[in-house]
Amino acid sequence: MKIIEVKDLGFKYAGTDFYAIRGVNLEIDEGEFVVLAGKSGCGKTTLLRCLNGLIPHFYEGEFEGRVLIDGIDTRECPPHILSQKAGMVFQNPDNQLFALSVEADIAFPLENLGLPREEIRDRVEWALKLLGIEELRKRSPFELSAGQKQKVAIASVLAMKPKILLLDEPTSSLDPVSAKNLIDAIIDLNRRHGLTILISEHRLTHLIPHADKLAIMDRGRIIYFDDPRRILKEDVLIYGVSIPRVVEVAREMRRIGGCIPFKDIPLSVEEFISGLKGALR
Description:
By secondary structure, this protein is α/β, with parallel strands linked by helices. It is built from ten helices and ten strands. Helix 4 (102-112) packs parallel to helix 6. The model has no long low-confidence stretch (mean pLDDT 90).
């Protein structure tokens, strides 16, 4: 079932004379894990804003095409309703955290929905456990590490029980260890809980092995959308996509005569080693 359907989407921000995105078509099935990549300024953030209704309800401009989220036209549904279908985590978690405690931040959007107090408590507890951050419940968000803040921001979105999680470069301010821990948590949400994930990210090494699809944007358009193995056979570096080193090595080995060929492009070190073992038997 298609949970995200984008048809001929275009948007020009008010006060600008160019389209941030144009001619975008995209279909994502429920439960899929999709990575969105491309140079800074290529339109990734604008596309995510269109998917959760910030465009056209919050950002003014010229909107073209159609976006359906779980069958709902985003032009006809306010963002606070859409947030229960497609929750978004921003690049800077400080933009989403403002309460005096972690549990208060997670409860805030639920209180705005007017949910019963008991249900709010249950959802906060569920989201804390889901991200493994129960010990942070009484802490102030402003004394947390960047990685902890991102997990709290994700928990506050998940408490709304959305079917889709949209993430806009969530690891951009994190060190490598914190980034991997956060990515592992996001992968777990997809694999164990069936959440549809669309994540805009530059660090592809840990994400690509788990991605069902890879979308690459350039100058406001999606130029590739397919299985990562098929796309990474091509030279995508010109589009600002830094491919995993293991993919580079495998491609070079396929190119050079006499080297061990790989039937499929390996997306992880484990797949690379498995491919070598198979070829050497």
